[in-house]
Amino acid sequence: MRWRPVALTLGAIIFLFPFYYMVVGSLQARPDSSPAGALPRPGNLSLNNYREIDAAVNLGRSLLNSIVFTGGVVLGTLVFGVLAGYALARLRYPGRGTLFAAMLLLQVIPFQLLVIPLYVQIVRGYGLADTYLGMILPFAINSVAVFVFRQFFLQLPGELFEAARIDGAGELRVLWSVALPLVRPALLTATLLTFIGPWNEFLWPFLVTKQAGMQPLAVALANYMSTVASAATNPYGAILAGACFLAAPAVLLFIVFQRHFVSSDLGSGVKG
Amino acid sequence: MRRQPIGMLFSAPYAVFVAAVFAYPLGLAVWISFHEYIFTAPGVSVPRPFVGLDNYSAVLTDPAVRRSFVNIGIFLIINVPLTVALSLLLATALNSAVRGRTFFRTSFYLPYVAASVAVVGVWLFLFGSGGLVNQVLGSAAPDPSWLINENWAMPSIALFVTWKQLGFFILLYLAALQNVPKELYESAAVDGANRWRSFRAVTVPGVRPATTLVTLLAIITGANLFTEPYLLTNGGGPSGRSASPVLLMYQRGIEQGHPDVAAAIGVLLVAGVLIVAGAQQLLERRQR
């Protein structure tokens, strides 16, 4: 079995090197793209790039915008997505089949097709440009998370629910006290899955926000890259500093919780 | 069987969301594409006459739009086979009991969880004219450099997206590999099959449903391409050689104020995705 470690190591180098280089490049006082520059040199280290990007895009404010945008989506998904997932898995009512079919169909509609009509509706129709609500609305409930919730609720034994109902518990109470505590890993997985969507999303918040003060990190950094960067002393350094700042929260969350983001959880989606 | 009408209440918010954010805009996109449509301030109503296929003929005779569809074709020809081959290879390697499994798995999905905008920054630095990649390649480096070279811009984006998304597809294949019965490998070994033969005869057919899913998702990702041509090749450059249909939807629809034309590009794009996905399904069924 010699080829496996070779393939995996080669893969890991190709996957990790750009991240390593991102950090090294963000700390260089002068850009050094020679092969030797891939190793940090004590004489060429500085935090100046971070100061430069902060002065240009106001990292604190952009971070707050990213947090509100992402937080709104995660909250919407956890509240309404869990309710829908539970209903789809455990309750019998008219319209359930239709909703489930619609949910599956959604997965194959490219979001970008909807961009123009959503822009017409949300920005031009409701006047929600430069608002958090306008940013959140199209992502408010993550359908993949609803699907994950449904799969997890389906896996619980049916007798559990029957017993609770016979004891006179209402459905909300069954969901809250019986089902939810048993699917905690699913909640974490779905939260992580949901988190990366809005945190990394570029196109939609880019269309909705024109004021710099409302832009999430990804949009602020992208604007800096496409317009302002050339004016900085070390534009690549400043871009990479911003990139580290943007990538770090998602990367760290996934490293800490990596065991909750494994194939078996996602697999429930594949095996369907 | 007892019915629980309260389920309607539980799923009502999600049903409203699906209707308002997916179903209605989907219909609106098609409607806009058949009308002359301009942006107005909220509450202002202007005539929006039916114009038949005018928007579509405007789109189809626009060389920039046609180029963008060719570009996506180039993208898919590189990205889809590479994604399927590499993610299956790495998933197979990960599936055995190797040391450092967690480390490898985590490092493979880091590009997937990191924001496109952030990793585009590093690629700009790595693949720029005087970047590390060209310094290492020396005289073998393309001139002009990757992202500003007419022939390399689109393949560079295809490679970037393959790298970025691979971790997700590896996870899908890992899940699928758990479903391939171990006995099949054992009987293949008894029949004297070497590792490559048992991979061909057992693994590949065993994960075929996952391959269908991976191919479909890779095609959809490719059709949705926007951030990379916008940032990595500076707005679809050089001279439109890396422009994607979605980038043109943005430029025509929102920058230049022609949402009707942009909607027509969107409808054509989805029709294209459905045709490509359908053709792929047919091809696969015939192979079986």
TrEMBL record, chain A:
Pfam family, one: BPD_transp_1
CDD domains: TM_PBP2
Keyword Transmembrane: yes
Subcellular location(s) of the protein: Cell membrane
BP GO terms, sorted: transmembrane transport
Membrane topology annotation: Multi-pass membrane protein
Chief location category: membrane
Bilayer-spanning residue ranges: 67-88, 100-120, 132-153, 174-196, 236-257
Cell membrane listed as a keyword: yes
Keywords: Cell membrane, Membrane, Transmembrane, Transmembrane helix, Transport
One cellular-component annotation, GO: plasma membrane
InterPro entries in the record: MetI-like (IPR000515), MetI-like_sf (IPR035906)
Domain ABC transmembrane type-1: 63-257
Superkingdom of the organism of origin: Bacteria
Family: Belongs to the binding-protein-dependent transport system permease family.
The protein's name: Sugar ABC transporter permease
Phylogenetic classification of the source organism: Bacteria, Bacillati, Actinomycetota, Actinomycetes, Micromonosporales
TrEMBL record, chain B:
Membrane topology: Multi-pass membrane protein
UniProt superkingdom: Bacteria
Record-annotated ABC transmembrane type-1 domain positions: 65-280
Subcellular location: Cell membrane
Main location: membrane
PANTHER family given in the database record: ABC TRANSPORTER PERMEASE PROTEIN, DIACETYLCHITOBIOSE UPTAKE SYSTEM PERMEASE PROTEIN NGCF
Family statement drawn from the similarity comment of this UniProt entry: Belongs to the binding-protein-dependent transport system permease family.
Protein name: ABC transporter permease
Species annotation: Actinoplanes palleronii
